[in-house]
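Write out this protein's structure.
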Amino acid sequence: MSIANLSTTDAGSYYCEIQNATAITKSSTVTLTVIQKQLLGHWPLDTDASDISGNGLNGTLNGTPVFGGGLVNQS
């Protein structure tokens, strides 16, 4: 069995059932757990260590950081 486009709604217990003309056999049950990826933090480091993910995980700059000339914005 395969599940296309797996999502959290597919989580649960599954087993295999095999049947012939005289008998039905079931496999052991297994539990499928689906862990959804989520963004924990995003620190672009443009001018400070603010987290722009919305989770409020702001960083603290140490030393004397210099911003500018980065590949993305100021970082």
